[in-house]
Amino acid sequence: MTLHDSLTLVFRIVIAAIFIVLTLAGAAFLFPQQVLTIDSGTVKAGALVVLGGGEGRAERAAQLYHNGDAPLIIVTGYGDCLTNVQTLEREGVPASAITPEPAALSTLQNAQYSVPLLRALRVQRVIIVTSWYHSRRALACFEHVAPDLRFFSRPAYVDFEPKSHNRTGYGWHVNYEYIKLLGYWFSYGICPLQP
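RESULT FIELD:
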């Protein structure tokens, strides 16, 4: 093989790789719900963990609680923990079923600070409740922190319209989530490619 042939081959490989990356990026932008969402469907667990930071999460947890999907709820997240606890109580969840965790400042800390509470409650099966666009990273964080526990995802779908996600107020959150996924993968080794 000549030098010219080698350079041509390398050029073709680079062009193909760029095409694949751009195609995947386009698909991720056009179909964020299919890429970012993990929804485990109907499942029973020992506890729900509601992550702070998004609308509809506490309401979704209350719905799952009333459906009998889990008898306990851990509310995690600095800043809106108290508000989420109040929302749960307003939605008819008894205070005795709620455990607040108000210190977590990130998704990874949500997992790190909630897992000891789950272990103290002797819970083996856990439903994570967060926003749809955050569900992949949240689930990956909890599985990374406690691979011996079984985690499921039942996200909140507030005001999501697939064809207009950038006009609903979620565009920034959705697009930034891709950056966070890569950041968590490279910084903490938390792979977002799990099913």
